[in-house]
Design brief:
Elements: H1 2-8, E1 17-22, H2 29-42, E2 47-51, H3 57-62, E3 71-74, E4 77-81, H4 84-102, H5 111-118, H6 124-138, E5 144-148, H7 152-189, H8 199-218, E6 224-230, H9 234-250, E7 254-262, H10 265-270, H11 274-285, E8 294-299, H12 308-312, E9 319-320
Bound molecules: adenosine-5'-triphosphate and magnesium ion.
Length: 321
């Protein structure tokens, strides 16, 4: 019943459809990403579960052999554990090449050392994550891509970037257009024919298009779903509610709310956490989603599910609210 309700959310979405699993560290993001991926795969879809979380638990649970390489895990189910340090290196290189192509004058101040410096600047790593995310969005090889996201604060910064970039790039384009037209007018006055075409402007426009496309995919309910996971405790629930608020601000559709590791009331009573669990659950499960939304409760099981089979067996005890 609960599984059908969950799968029904995806019956008429566009493919590839991206599901972003979010939540505080340790609440079961990776576990839920695997569970959802396996359920979608068992329903006949080709699914990739990709973890951007550097805790690398996807690799551990699914026994992946290497990082940054997609592996077939079972039937239609594929998985990849991203190690972001590779992308950070690639990004540094690509900036170094781009800078020397677009601004040959920079040769005087060694471009590589400039890039070495920016590598540690705030936002650089976020940009690397955004590139990975963008690549996952562009991969047409799957029906569904379930993304296990990094810690909440970092995820917020990554998901805020496309909008911010679009804003900055629009302004940069306006400035560059003024420079190019001024140059043209000055050249004409001096009797020199000058091309209006400008490589910097072209690059900016290309970047604008890339971020516009990503933003439109991220905010389209047909292409993106966010799943918010929490355990029934105050801090994880607080973070989950903040996440729902953030997603609605950036226009990403939260369609799944999961309360994971819920203890039976009797056990919660013995452990002295019954009130806290009840209060937290009620806050989480009464959270408002922007549209149709499935709320799930997954009980705490005796043995931590650290294999695909163990994660899949959670499906039989999932309940909807
Ligand atoms: N329903 C459950 N019952 C019992 N243990 C669970 C359940 N769900 C997850 N776990 C266990 O809780 C721990 C945290 O789960 P998981 O690794 O999926 O969380 P996470 O949010 O991805 O954490 P991290 O931020 O560390 O990556 C793991 O040991 C996992 O096996
Ligand atoms: Mg994890």
């Amino acid at each position: 019943m609960a599984v059908e309700a969950l799968l029904s959310l995806f019956s008429d979405v566009e493919r590839p459809h991206v599901i972003l699993t979010t939540g505080k560290g340790g609440v079961g993001k990776t576990t839920f990403s695997i569970l959802l991926g396996a359920l979608l795969a068992d329903a006949g879809n080709k699914v990739l579960v990709a973890s951007l979380d550097q805790a690398m638990h996807l690799e551990e649970y699914l026994k992946l052999r290497s990082r940054n390489k997609v592996e077939r895990v079972d039937g239609n189910l594929y998985a990849v554990q991203v190690d972001i340090s590779d992308e950070v290196k690639r990004l540094g290189k690509s900036y170094s090449i781009l800078l020397s192509q677009l601004m040959p004058g920079l040769k005087v101040i060694n471009v590589d050392s400039v890039v070495d410096m920016i590598k540690h600047a705030p936002g650089f790593e976020e940009e690397a994550y955004l590139r990975e995310l963008s690549r996952l969005y562009d991969d047409k090889g799957y029906d569904f891509v379930v993304i296990d996201t990094p810690p909440t604060g970092l995820t917020f910064r990554i998901l805020s970037l496309p909008r911010l970039y679009r804003f900055w790039i629009d302004r940069l384009i306006a400035i560059r257009e003024r420079i190019v037209s001024l140059r043209y007018v000055i050249a004409r006055t001096a009797g020199i024919e000058r091309e209006l075409d400008d490589p910097v402007l072209r690059k900016l426009e290309e970047q604008r298009e890339t971020f516009e496309r990503l933003l439109s995919s991220m905010t389209s309910p047909g292409r993106t779903t966010a799943a918010v996971v929490a355990t029934p405790e105050p801090l994880p629930v607080y973070e989950a509610l903040k996440t729902i608020e953030f997603m609605s601000e950036v226009g990403i559709n939260v369609k799944i709310v999961v309360a994971n590791r819920v203890l039976p009331a009797s056990l919660a009573e013995v452990l002295g956490v019954r009130r806290v669990q009840e209060d937290s659950l009620s806050k989480l499960l009464s959270a408002k989603c922007p549209g149709p939304c499935v709320k799930l409760v997954i009980p705490q099981v005796d043995k931590a599910p650290h294999t695909l089979e163990a994660v899949k067996s959670l499906a039989s005890s999932v309940k909807t609210v």
